[in-house]
Amino acid sequence: MHVRIFIKPWCGWCQEALEWLNANNFEFETLDVTSDPVAAREMRELSGQTLTPTIDIDGQILPDFSVTELKHFLDEIGIKYPQ
């Protein structure tokens, strides 16, 4: 499983998502769209928007989410995590 999360460092939802992913032992790549224009462009192409956090899990995209929405997304795509 390849997980990438597009963030803005000052974004509270981004920090919450990163903390949740770390607490649940997910391995992921963090892409800062404020300092990486290539990542920002890719996020816009994948999600159709500029809002963060946006997560890409093996090509499944969830844009602009809270941890609650992330949990539902993981359930929908069949990824197990501690509850």
List the helices and strands and how they pair.
Blueprint: E1 3-7, H1 12-23, E2 29-32, H2 37-47, E3 54-57, E4 60-63, H3 67-76
Parallel strand pairs: 1-2
Antiparallel strand pairs: 1-3, 3-4
Description:
- The chain has 83 residues and is α+β, with helices and mostly antiparallel strands.
- The protein has one domain: Glutaredoxin (3-Layer(aba) Sandwich).
- Helices cover 40% and strands 20% of the residues.
- The protein is built from three helices and four strands.
- It has helices at residues 12-23, 37-47, 67-76, and strands spanning 3-7, 29-32, 54-57, 60-63.
- Strands 2-1-3-4 form a four-stranded mixed sheet, sandwiched between helices.
- β3 (54-57) and β4 (60-63) form a beta hairpin.
- The longest helix is centred in the first third of the chain and has 12 residues, at 12-23.
- The two termini are 19 Å apart.
